[in-house]
Design a protein that fits this description.
By secondary structure, the chain is α/β, with parallel strands linked by helices. Helices cover 44% and strands 14% of the residues. It has eight helices and six strands. The chain has a six-stranded mixed β-sheet with strand order 1-3-2-4-6-5, with helices on both faces. α1 runs antiparallel to α5. Bound molecules: uracil (URA).
Length: 200
Amino acid sequence: MYKVEREKLLKQIKKEILDLKKSPLYAERVKNKVYPVIGEGDHFAKIMFVGEAPGKNEAITGKPFCGTSGKILDELLSSVSIKREKVYITNIVKDRPSMNRDPSPDEIEIYGPFLDRQVEIIQPKVIATLGRFSMVYIMKKFGLDFDIQPISSAHGKSFEAETSYGKVKIIPLYHPAAAIYNQHLKETLIKDFKILKKYE
Ligand code: URA
């Protein structure tokens, strides 16, 4: 699929999300004068990162992972010399759930199909899930229900799945936020990120 076509399809997703009145998070977005976070990065990225949902800074700027978790993600990317512009970064839920609560099953159901379309358009070779929610969503999406384990055992493993455009590797990772106050998890994340280097 050509660059212009990818751009057009991704723009269409943005348009639909901007107008997603059926989402319970839409009214809050309007009330708080914040933005949905669609995703950003290379439309031909080999690696796609999938987080959970935007936090406060992300909703203010419309950019994924630009707050405290984003700083850690940036550090992890530079630890393996992967440029942020070379990957694609998005979330399952595109609007911020208030008070940084976990996304609800309803919210995941509403926003999940947009992530599915982003995967089909960008066609990554690797989907690196950040945190438990995106791991479960992505593994279920690719029929890997029976391989789902707690993130404490799944992190850093690689699961292969078939897509409409070929094979994809799913690599569950801890959410960068988990490393904010936990140096041990940060070291684990640094170690797990090394796996991504060969797919860059
Ligand atoms: N946490 C997420 O899961 N996604 C973001 O974009 C920011 C924080």
